[in-house]
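FAQ

Q: What does a record look like?
A: Structure on top, sequence underneath. For example:
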């Protein structure tokens, strides 16, 4: 093993991981917002048979792709601390999971 620092020049990989976390967090946030606000729920109802689930998942995918592009452009030639990127990703994924649990988002229902 070498004594290299915990950084990698592969910022593109870190961008992909963190962007996945951003997409997960977006899904959790949109799920909770749809429960809090009837207006948001109606705005996310892109297709009646699926209800607001179509908009929640569709917007989460769009946010994931947009964040991936932005982070890729920002980090593509930079050393990014791999452990920090992993920690950020795990926190964002955890936030997304919590936001999609009925026990959590039903606390905000009307």
């Amino acid at each position: 093993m070498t004594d290299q620092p915990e950084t990698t020049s592969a910022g593109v990989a870190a961008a992909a991981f963190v962007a996945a976390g951003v997409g997960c967090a977006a899904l959790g946030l949109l799920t909770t917002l749809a429960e809090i606000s009837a207006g948001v729920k109606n705005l996310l109802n892109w297709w009646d048979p699926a209800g607001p689930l179509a908009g929640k998942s569709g917007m989460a995918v769009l946010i994931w792709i947009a964040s991936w592009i932005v982070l890729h452009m920002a980090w593509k030639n930079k050393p990014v601390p791999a452990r920090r990127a992993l920690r950020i990703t795990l926190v964002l994924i955890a936030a997304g999971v919590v936001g999609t649990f009925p026990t959590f988002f039903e606390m905000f229902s009307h």
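Q: Is there anything notable about this one?
A: The first helix runs from residue 11 to 36.
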